[in-house]
Amino acid sequence: MKDARIVLVDDDDGSRAAMALGLRRVGYEVVELRGGEQAIALLQSGESVDVLITDVRMPGIDGYALLARAREMRAEMPILLVTAFGDVDGAVRALKLGADDYLTKPVHLEELRKRVQKELERRHLEEKAKELEGRIEKFFGFENIIGCSPAMGAVLERVRVAAPAPTTVLIVGESGTGKELIANAIHQHSPRATRSFVALNCGAIPGEILEAELFGHEKGAFTGAHQRRTGKIESAHGGTLFLDEISELSADLQVKLLRVLEERRITRVGGNEEIAVDFRLVAATNRDLDAEVASGRFRQDLYYRLKVVTIALPSLRQRPEDILPLVDHFVVQFNRQLSRHVKRLAPGVLDVLRSHPWPGNVRELRNVIENMVLFCQGAELTTADLPPEYRQTSPVSRDDGAAVPAGQPAREQAATAPRPMADIEKEAILGALAFTQGHRAKAANILGIGLRTLQRKLKEYGVAAVRGDG
């Protein structure tokens, strides 16, 4: 944290210079400003600031006004105010306005350094706590991955086998199928679970800055590089690096990534020092990489480096039996988030949801259920709660190959296409499991069958390994 960037605001040139010198002597980068107006302009520019230190008494925008504006722009940034000696009321006011700490003039330089160090350490701990909270949330999300279909059972089995190994994994699947969730599951069930999971969407960052995001950069490497920055690869040291949409890498970056995978060393942009890195790579794409290789858009040697283990995620169309448990899960989630009290689906809603092709997969279904729960006026989701574009759906295939007309009422669809008893039985069993969150004994009790019968049926469906007993 000694390379942190400190912005120091004081209209007293002598006082400001003395504080700046004291901070620079221990390795901090210090930006000196003479007034609040300059500080606000710097914050608005988006430049990196690790700690803001400001005097209170300044012409124009004083320290209190600067504190208020800075809190609006950088809510988490540590801010220290420098007040006149013995000004207790001023110190109390500063803390009430959101200052993290205050010092009194004349400032003792050793005390200043201690206060800055304390705030940097506090901020670092807060960031680590947020990271841990996110990882824990995703960890439990994996344990409750919604899917009792044979297709998802096969995916989770591959995850369980691949996760403990150091092997590179390539996850393929349409957009919205949950590739990052699976990548997180691999990390959380690996020996690297206590270290960082670092994700980067290669398709969401302009090509000209993607290299700096991956490899980091040295101070002054390019315009705007005001300080050294650690890249995603270096940040993943000891942990897992997840590169989503890896097919979007330019040919030049493909070469550089291949070299990193072979040598396990990187060089920051604008630097000369080689840095050893130890990370596990999990990559994902929604494109056909075989076709990308054949067209020359993706390097064959990198492709072979990535596809040591391939996990193919099924689209939601390929696992329609998972729609009901997914809907139940999202209803519970959005009831909590939106303070709603939805308890059930009206007849016909599930038929409409199952007949939709879901090009956006689980992400699209999640958004639809959030919309429905938000606007639902009672305890029951009806077809009227569906967004208008979902009330008329595309034809869906029946078991006999014929098509059911779009928008046909659910009861009429059922009359047109009778369903085998085995299908109804399977749906009831999987629905009961979803309702009991995978507790088989409870599900068997609800269904009025023995636990052994339920387990035998699950084995027949090929989903016995997907959920536990409790």
Task: Give a topology summary.
Elements: E1 5-9, H1 13-24, E2 29-33, H2 36-44, E3 51-55, H3 63-73, E4 79-83, H4 88-96, E5 101-104, H5 109-143, H6 150-162, E6 169-172, H7 179-188, E7 197-201, H8 207-215, H9 232-235, E8 240-244, H10 251-263, E9 265-267, E10 274-276, E11 280-285, H11 289-294, H12 300-306, E12 309-312, H13 323-338, E13 344-345, H14 349-355, H15 361-375, E14 380-381, E15 396-397, E16 403-404, H16 410-416, H17 421-435, H18 440-447, H19 451-461
Parallel strand pairs: 1-2, 1-3, 3-4, 4-5, 6-11, 6-12, 7-8, 8-11, 13-14
Antiparallel strand pairs: 9-10, 15-16
Helix pairs in contact: 1-5, 2-3, 5-7, 13-15, 13-17, 17-18, 18-19
Number of strands: 16
Q: Strand pairing plus helix content: what structural class?
A: alpha/beta
Global morphology: globular
Helix content: 40-55%
Structural Rg: 28 Å
Largest sheet: 5 strands, parallel
The CATH architecture name of the largest domain reads 3-Layer(aba) Sandwich
Mean pLDDT: 84
Proportion of beta-strand residues:
5-15%
Strand line-up of the largest beta sheet: 2-1-3-4-5
CATH topology of the largest domain: Rossmann fold
CATH class of the largest domain: Alpha Beta
- For the record, what is the CATH homologous superfamily label of the largest domain? P-loop containing nucleotide triphosphate hydrolases
Distance between the termini: 45 Å
**Number of helical elements:** 19
Number of structurally distinct domains: 3
Low-pLDDT runs of 5+ residues are 394-419
